[in-house]
Design goal:
It comes from Mycolicibacterium agri (Mycobacterium agri). The chain has one helix and 13 strands. The protein has 192 residues and is mostly beta strands.
Length: 192
Amino acid sequence: MKRLAAASAGALTIAALIAPAHASAAANSATTSIPVDPATSIEMHVNANCVAAENRCFFDTTANLLTPDGPIGFPGDTWARQTITLRSSSRDTWQEASYSAPAGNPRETKGANHENVLSKMYRALNNVEISITYFGGGPIERFKADGDSVPTDWTYGRPDTKSNFYACSQIQVVYGGVNLTTPTACAQTTFS
């Protein structure tokens, strides 16, 4: 009887070791803020999520005012400039990225003007920078951006799923006597 139990336990262990891996993702988020006055602050939120089954990392950002009643959008006289930087922990990794600003618009790889939100993507050898300029205020949804990137190894031309992925963002907001820039919020993740 003891031999049968030992054999069953051994078979279960082997089955567990050779079972196919499930597609999984690794996600991380970061939030920074800067006070406008004792009751209000400007927040920058960044989320990053790398999906191994797709060899792709996704990101999204949101900027808002945080008031005692909760998060709200920005006043009508707002002008703001947001910068999003996508990079890897490997200097040999290129970011093949696209984005939407505001989120929900068609994906861009160069630049666009959607709803008086101007955006432009700048590519470097090992990072991508997205610059978004907002003319006018509005609800929180207007200050959301999202996108994806395939971190690609320059040497082999294949997706780099071993290095860390970073999505960082900050925003400068100007309205009614306010001119403030949030600290940079960085979400760091890996493929799992």
